[in-house]
Specification:
Blueprint: E1 2-10, E2 15-19, E3 35-44, H1 48-71, E4 92-102, E5 106-115, H2 117-126, E6 139-147, E7 150-152, H3 159-166, E8 176-179, H4 183-188, H5 191-195, H6 199-208, E9 213-223, E10 229-238, E11 246-251, H7 258-280, E12 288-296, H8 300-311, E13 316-324, E14 328-336, H9 339-348, E15 351-356, E16 359-364, E17 378-380, E18 383-385
Parallel strand pairs: 1-8, 6-8, 6-9, 12-16
Antiparallel strand pairs: 1-2, 3-5, 4-5, 6-7, 9-10, 10-11, 12-14, 13-14, 15-16, 17-18
Helix pairs in contact: 3-7
Length: 422
Amino acid sequence: MIRRSVLICWVGRLTLITILVSCLSARVDASDLFTIHSISIDFEANDANAARKLALADGQVRALKALLKKLTLDTDHGRLPVVEESRLGEFVQGFEIANEQRSERRYLADLTVRFKPYAVRALLRAADIPFAESASPPIIVLPIFQRAGTTNLWDDPNPWRDAWYRFEAQEGLVDLVVPIGELADLAAINSVQALNGDRAALREFGGRHGAEEALVTVAKLEFDPSGTPSVDVTAQMYGSVVGPIRVERFSGTPDGSVEALLHDSVSEMVARIEYDWKLENLLAFNEKQDIIVVVPIKGLQHWLKLSSALGELTVIRETKLLSLSKKEALVNVVYLGNMDRLANLLAQRGIDLLSSDERWTLVAQDDFDYKGSEQTRHETEGVVTGDTRQVVEELPALGSKKETSSPKTSVRPAPLDDLLVE
């Protein structure tokens, strides 16, 4: 999912306001994951009422298919369950109609359908298809274009930025924000800072657009002796941790345009980013474990904020507070999947899961917004925090990943009705 972003600055009152306009699609939100927006419907029948009935039924069927694809890996799309039209009422919670038009025999509209989360989860679990339902934090995209020794981010020409800006992605779990390149953008960050991974500049720039992470993607365009274009694309994510560098080459055809090549490259990159996010956030219902962790805290508000951040992770099924003092909390965490995945997902939110002296500790900063500057290492009751390792699971690893010894966990089989609660 990609959206455009424009900044407007009220200089007179020294107030900066981020306004998101010209959205290619709605922002990913946890409460909106089971909604599919703007399905175009167009049917003809003997009269407009009959056409409307057929169009609404077809639109709901297509919306459910789109939702199932949105939550699952593309490698599983070939075995997604097929729901008959007569069963739609089991899954549809409601719908909205916009841009409605009709004639004597034709009906056209845009349909937004909200589905029942519990029913959709049950459908996928019955089909034994893993799924993810964690939306990514907003990610600001900085598209840098290189050709013949020149490097452009905000300057023209930058067909790589144009390709990202024009690309219309299907609804997904990853929220990509493409800045339009206003004066405030030019003042906030330049191509050198982006290429060097200046985390302070990236953090400030992302914050202006409401983004918690930044994706720096570089496209280097070249032509072979026959005039066939190719583009080398590198991409790296900057957030609470620094992701590995992904390198891809895309080749065009002798009679193809550079614009088409760059569009296809963006499409492929977005699909891979979406796939990687889903893969890291799949809910493994057959792997349910628990762990007791110590959580250093700085007061009640700090604990409440950390507890809220833990609750946002769908892989964490339950947290039970065992004890609470002014300096630390002792918590039993029930989660899905293995320890490495849990540590990875926590690290994405600026929370480190550390092992020391045969105990596990959750260490977080005071807030859980996008952090960019180099973290300093310090001691908290004998536990070293500020781990700057690159935590990346099941991605082409150019960076290293530290191994963590497995904790003693109790594994219980998940009951058949073990579904996420609304």
